[in-house]
Amino acid sequence: MAAPVVVSTSVSVCSNYGYHRRPSLSALSYYSNSISNANLKLSSQCFSNLLRSNSKAPIYCRKFVARTSIGENESESESEKDLGLVGEDSAAFELGKQKISSWIYFTAILGVVLCVLNVAWIDNSTGYGKAFIDAVSTLSDSHEVVMLILILIFAGVHSGLASFRNTGEKLIGERPFRVIFAGISLPLAVSTVVYFINHRYDGLQLWLLQDAPGLHQLLWLSNFISFFFLYPSTFNLLEVAAVDKPKLHLWETGIIRITRHPQMVGQVIWCLAHTIWIGNSVAVAASIGLIAHHLFGVWNGDRRLAIRYGEDFELVKSRTSVVPFAAILDGRQKLPKDFYKEFIRLPYLTVTALTLGAYFAHPLMQTASFNLHW
Fold first, then answer.
1. CA–CA distance, 258 with 339 (Å, rounded to integer)
2. Where is the NnrU domain (predicted)?
3. Single pTM value for the model
């Protein structure tokens, strides 16, 4: 026996009647008949569409809502609730839809980028990285000031290009703009990271807590967690390398349910962990600069998403929060029962592997940075 299919419709009808004038009986009768006819037409149209294609999910919108339920009349299934999302499902990755050729292109592009970066910037005999660091270092004898200047330069270029993204992509296209964006931002990021590694123990020692019992384990765990917040926008590596067309995504699931700006939260956690461990003025200066940059990114990111997505972003904004867990605690964010499944996905597993790899590669990173003499 075929399972029953329940179709429900809701129609929003607005009236221009004012409070100073009561509608006549004929007007009430007219609008009542109109509403009845509209409901009948919409119900018929919706049921007809469902019969034509049972492979397509019902369409959710603000004025007209169509729901199907097989074997249940009142309660919605989890998949039905997901249909109410206006943003994208973050970290969704279907292995069957991946093209081997795309990942071959990605590997080739990554190799070319790293070679160019090494020759043009990192290698002291051919690149301009050391000259850049030396030029900035002439501005002050203070490592703290130089650290802040490097972060300011990177932040200005990175956020400036991000703000120019809509216009830039219209002028030259998504892929060329991504190449320019990465080509300028990446060398500046490398310079800032290398300078921090080389000078992280310079400056004034403010506290020394490295011998405190359990502190290393606590800060290690905090740093590990920070990377799950830091990289929610790079789940599709093919977009990062411009193999796929880059997009400004409006994510709404996974980590976004906890905070709308996970990169800011992750950066704050990372900075606090490293600053507590190192405990000197250079670490404090680096943390102030990085946190300030990401706090600006909260405002700038919301502004850019509002321009691109309009009402959809406002809806996502209304049920998410900048402060972690705030929207969940005050009831604006309703977590599905299987919320944990949004994290059991390949991109999150990849982040886990890369984070552990970066931790064990710390000695190699420190040696490589020291050999540059920046």
1. 11
2. 146-365
3. 0.75
**Residue 166 · residue 307 · CB < 8 Å:** yes
CB-CB contact of 82 with 90 (8 Å): no
Domain residue spans in the chain? 5-82, 97-372
Amino acid 109 reads I
For 329, residues 6+ apart whose C-beta sits below 8 A from its C-beta are: none
Residue linked to tokens 């956690």: 269
What is the secondary structure of 267-321 as a DSSP string?
Answer: HHHHHHHHHHHH-BHHHHHHHHHHHHHHHHHHHHHHHHHHHHHTHHHHHHHHT--
Residue 313 pLDDT > 90: yes
Q: What is the mean pLDDT of the chain?
A: 81
Contact 336, 76 (CB under 8 A): no
- Is the confidence at residue 218, as pLDDT, over 90? yes
Compute how many other C-beta atoms are within 10 angstroms of the C-beta atom of residue 94.
Answer: 7
Tokens describing residue 209: 């807590």
Question: Please, are residues 64 and 9 in contact by the beta-carbon 8 Å criterion?
Answer: yes
55: tokens are 């492979």
The two structure tokens encoding residue 148? 């802040």
